[in-house]
Design a protein that fits this description.
This protein is α+β, with helices and mostly antiparallel strands. It has 3 domains: 52 residues, RNA-binding S4 domain (Structural Genomics Hypothetical 15.5 Kd Protein In mrcA-pckA Intergenic Region, Chain A, Roll); 87 residues, Alpha-Beta Plaits (2-Layer Sandwich), CATH 3.30.70; 75 residues, 2-Layer Sandwich (Alpha-Beta Plaits). It has 7 helices and 17 strands. Strands 7, 8, 9, 10, 13, 14, 15, 16 and 17 form a 9-stranded mixed β-sheet that branches. The protein has a 4-stranded antiparallel β-sheet with strand order 3-2-5-6. Strand 5 and strand 6 form a beta hairpin. Helix 1 crosses helix 2. The two termini are 26 Å apart.
Length: 244
């Protein structure tokens, strides 16, 4: 363990292995499941070259190549890394290395979700203060009113708070497009329910600059170099010492 300039924080080291995000790494450390050179680690510890880090008594090492994937998640797949859950996203994508999803998409929803082994990018994308956009197409059970569209965009009281103002555009009688910068639990469905509408179809078509267009249902692809370069630029201002 070291404090010199060539060392890195323990939670960052753990996330760089693709095991989990820094937030989850802190939890592992607090639970006493992490050791450095066979000594139980504490939050704030740092790792230098030559140190052996173990989680649950298994040695972990940083990934040499980072993976960034865009998946068109089908309805019925659950966004969890717990492979004990039937229909989990890890078994569905069946990638040969350990990866995990960035954020979530409801089991009943389809569309774009990003997956990676880069714990650092998870923090930067999900931090609500960065105001990264996510765009959805939503179909409801009855005809849309002008009043509904207006009120959805102005903020809705759900989960003991008000949703942030957002852009809502009517597509046809039963379908609208909505762009969010926050990710409350089942947010769109709860917003619609507040106005006595029921969501019967929900598809995420964009995360930041990354689009679902052209990606077939159930398929995945690697992010392009152009997408990765813009992603790095959009997240570079994120506080490196913060977590979502």
């Amino acid at each position: 363990m070291s404090d010199n300039q060539n060392s890195i924080s323990l939670n960052k080291y753990i996330s760089s292995t693709g095991l989990c995000s820094r937030r989850e790494a802190d939890k592992l450390i607090e639970e006493g499941k992490v050791t450095i050179n066979d000594q139980v680690a504490r939050k704030g510890n740092r790792v230098e070259e030559g140190d052996e880090v173990k989680v649950n008594n298994e040695v972990i090492v940083p990934k040499t190549k980072k993976v960034y994937i865009a998946l068109h998640k089908p309805v019925g797949i659950t966004c969890t890394t717990d492979t004990r859950v039937e229909g989990n996203i890890i078994d569905f994508i069946n990638y040969p290395e350990r990866i995990f999803n960035i954020g979530r998409l409801d089991k009943d929803s389809e569309g774009l979700i990003l997956m990676t082994n880069d714990g650092e990018i998870v923090n930067k994308i999900l931090r609500s203060s960065n105001k990264h956009e996510k765009e959805y197409i939503v179909t409801v059970n009855k005809e849309l009113s002008r009043d509904f569209i207006k009120k959805m965009g102005n903020g809705v009281p759900i989960l003991d708070t008000y949703t942030k103002k957002c852009k809502v555009t009517k597509i046809d009688k039963y379908t609208f497009k909505i762009t969010l910068t926050q990710g409350l639990n089942r947010q769109i469905r709860r917003m619609c329910e507040f106005f006595d509408y029921r969501v019967i179809g929900l598809k995420r078509i964009r995360i930041m600059h990354i689009k679902l267009k052209g990606l077939a249902y159930g398929n995945w692809r690697y992010l392009s170099d152009k997408e990765l370069a813009k992603l790095e630029k959009l997240t570079e201002s994120s506080d490196k010492n913060s977590i979502y």
